[in-house]
Design goal:
The structure is a single chain. It is built from two helices and eleven strands. The protein has 207 residues and is mainly β. The protein has a single domain, classed as Phosphatidylethanolamine-binding Protein. The strands form three sheets. A six-stranded antiparallel β-sheet has the order 8-9-6-5-10-11, with helices on one face. The protein has a three-stranded antiparallel β-sheet with strand order 1-4-7, with no helix packed on it. The protein has a two-stranded antiparallel ribbon with strand order 2-3. Strand 2 and strand 3 form a beta hairpin. The protein starts with a strand and ends in a 7-residue tail after the last strand. It holds the Pfam family PBP. InterPro entries: PEBP, PEBP-like_sf, YbhB_YbcL/LppC-like. This is Phospholipid-binding protein.
Length: 207
Amino acid sequence: MKLHVKGITEGERIPDKFAFGVYSDEDHMSFGPNRNPDLSWSDAPDGTKSYVVLMFDPDVPSKADDVNQEGKVVPKDLPRVDFFHWLLVDIPGDITRVPEAADSDGVIPKGKEPGPGTIGLRGVNTFTHFLAGNPDMAGTYGGYDGPCPPWNDELMHHYHFEVYALDVPSLGLSGPFEGDAVREAMKGHVLDSARVTGTYTLNPDLM
């Protein structure tokens, strides 16, 4: 399979228009345009009945004690975990594109509804947990929400956009499902996949 993410070049910085958070001289971070990029794919194998789209960051600190704290840094050698930014499942087999801004166009405080969307079924991204302690932002975040790494992180973050071709029309997921549930449900059903990786940071020393 081949995956094309319009506006994102393999291994290079993701444009601000796709980010949840953008750099700010005054406050380190301000809300970004938060538009999902245009994804298109081709050369799926015979027998493909549906697709899954995932976007995740494998470089998220496993401990958040020093995240976005003045006078502190998140060391690059801290163990890292996956943070899911986008989960779309049960995309019909005759659809091979998600247009820009079809699943997100702006930061929505308290999140977008998971469940049926304009294309496929939206899962719950990890902002749901990350923002749970913020009374102005806490909620359930469905669909796409873009990069917003800690502004004091010494590590450049990588964002993997992935598409999977599956041999089933549906993964049978319902309710507020998350990334690990998608990965588990896909086991044994993946015919092929493709990936494009971009980078992003809010740390001015890395920019």
